[in-house]
Design goal:
Helix content: 25-40%
Number of helices: 15
Strand content: 15-25%
CATH superfamily of one domain: ANL, C-terminal domain
Number of strands: 26
Strand order of the largest sheet: 2-1-10-9-11-12-13-14
């Protein structure tokens, strides 16, 4: 049975919520790092019960307090997906400090931007990141001190008293920066706790059993899903966080079985890669009840569920939105294969609007605007963009948060993701969704991966451009480009076909394997301007499907 929600209600801080669960579930597992994920730094798997983790957190809290770390300070964490990240987060949270997660795969310039923009008082880092952090700090006028994890002899009280965090800030998470420099999203303790409460209240196919779940995730703790969703969900339920360093498809199911996982968090690339594995009698030999995530490709969604025997529950939220207006398709009909992410619940309001802010008709794609029901439209949402109040105000114009996602509503009220607003190609008055074109091209034998976006066109305003990673055995020739065009023409209206095709060695992806749309746009523009793209615009005719160009 579920615990009554009031027993996991308002604690005031993430640390306080963890301590309650540690008191109730002291002997239950809190974190499990499989041996395969920990092999770079441990000869065995890492296992911590709630009671043991509580003791470790208390020790870290004392150490941090001795360094004069406290309320209102921001501390950067460069600790990867280790259990140490969670322990430091809880210890710092108990002192009133906010964390700023750093990605060890970022460039020195990207890390320098985050440290500069956030005003961190210090960085806690793994010794293995010395070079990238040293190079990042060299770009700062006043670099914050570094506390090397495990090197207690070198620690001394901080020489500064920088306090840049809001009073209730738990974390400052930077967006992936698909366009422009990354923005810092200020997340409060209530934001974090709200995610845990919401997850544990989900019914239907996503019901959580307190004290029994083991949630496996390969997603980075530097992002909202792992830090604010899976971690908070398990803390609120007394469940175990199975944290992997990254997704490895060849050993995935072995890790799932050995870790006795009951829930998995996924991104769309994971089902696609797992379906490529050879079929096995062990495909359904697991304890998973459901997968929770977003972005499952329509052509993979049903195939994955049928082969592996678990539902992939599509959901929608953003770092900025949190649990304030989250939507999940946990009940039937889920409209599998249509990018459906569920029906909005009573705690939120939404609008789908056109470019002028007018509501669109049912079935017509429009930008999704969301808010919380009640006198505070921002309840459960982020606290704003750090140092950018004007940008925060613009995002909340008309007291709705403008998500930038293009969505359509079905006749039954279920919402279906169409595309990012910035991923729309506007050609001769037609709005063309990049994801729609990508979905067709991704099914072709010649295509390993593809990114579609707009390039400038003097006659039609914008033209469709496809940057393609070729599958093995296919040459980057005009004949290949024309063959791809002809094959796609049988599945798309002529105006949606790529007017330009360029073959690239690799696509620009974020750390969570999402296309960096802004960077893709710049790459596409340069390829066209330098004559490195095949120009197929002359073949874009209403009868394009009648034959190869």
């Amino acid at each position: 049975m579920k615990r009554p929600l009031q027993s996991i209600a308002h604690h005031g801080s993430v640390h306080a919520a963890f301590r309650q669960s540690a008191g109730e579930w002291s002997e239950r597992p809190f974190v499990h790092i499989p041996a395969s994920a920990a092999r770079a730094y441990s000869a065995t798997a890492i296992d911590l019960t709630y009671g043991a983790a509580d003791a470790d957190v208390a020790g870290l809290s004392a150490s941090h307090a001795a360094l004069a770390i406290g309320q209102g300070q921001r501390i950067a964490l460069l600790l990867g997906n280790r259990a140490d990240f969670l322990l430091h987060f809880l210890a710092l949270n108990g002192l009133g400090a906010s964390i700023v997660p750093l990605n060890g795969e970022s460039s020195p310039a990207e890390i320098a931007h985050i440290l500069r923009d956030s005003g961190c008082a210090a960085t806690i880092a793994l010794p293995g990141h010395r070079k990238v952090l040293r190079d990042a700090l060299a770009q700062l006028d006043a670099p914050p001190p570094t506390i090397w994890h495990g090197d207690t002899d070198a620690e001394a009280p901080l020489a500064n008293d920088i306090r840049t965090a809001h009073i209730d800030e738990a974390a400052l998470l930077y967006t992936s920066g698909s366009t422009g420099a990354p923005k810092g999203c200020m997340l409060s303790n209530e934001y974090m706790l709200g995610m845990g409460r919401w997850y544990n209240a989900i019914d239907g196919l996503c019901a959580v059993e307190p004290g029994a779940e083991r949630l496996i995730t390969p997603l980075p703790l530097t992002h909202m899903n792992a830090l604010a969703v899976s971690s908070m969900a398990m803390i609120a339920a007394g469940g175990c966080i199975i944290q992997l360093e990254r997704f490895q498809s060849p050993t995935w199911w072995q890790t799932v079985r050995e870790s006795q996982a009951t829930i998995v968090h996924y991104l769309g690339v994971m089902p696609a890669m797992l379906l490529r594995l050879p079929a096995s009698d062990l495909d359904r030999k697991h304890n998973l009840k459901f997968g929770f995530g977003a972005g499952a490709h329509p052509k993979h969604h049903a195939a994955f569920e049928q082969r592996f025997g678990l539902p992939l529950i599509e959901s929608w939220s953003m770092t900025e939105v949190g649990a304030g207006a989250v939507v999940v398709a946990q009940r039937e009909p889920r409209h599998v294969g249509s990018r459906c992410f569920g029906k909005p619940e009573a705690f939120m309001q939404y609008r789908l609007v056109d470019a002028d802010g007018a509501d669109v008709a049912t079935g017509t794609p429009g930008e999704l605007w969301v808010r919380a029901v009640g006198p505070d439209p921002r309840k459960g949402f982020f606290s704003g963009y750090a140092n950018q109040p004007e940008l925060t105000a613009a995002a909340w114009e008309h007291d709705y948060f403008h998500t930038g996602d293009v969505v359509r509503a079905g006749a039954d009220g279920a919402l279906h993701f169409v595309d990012r607003k910035k991923s729309i190609v506007r050609r001769s008055g037609e709005n063309i969704a990049s994801l729609e074109v990508e979905a067709v091209l991704n099914q072709l034998a010649q295509v390993q991966g593809v990114g579609v976006g707009p390039v400038e066109d003097e006659l039609r305003g914008e033209e469709v451009m496809a940057c393609i990673e070729l599958a093995a055995g296919h040459a980057a020739t005009v004949a290949t480009a024309r063959a791809i065009f002809a094959a796609a023409a049988s599945s798309m209206a002529y105006f949606k076909l790529p007017g330009y095709i360029a073959f690239v060695a690799e696509l620009p992806l974020t750390s969570t394997q999402k296309l960096q749309r802004g960077q893709l746009r710049e790459i596409s523009r340069a390829l066209v301007e330098n004559g490195l793209a095949f120009d197929l615009r002359a073949y874009k005719k209403r009868n394009a499907a009648t034959g190869a160009p």
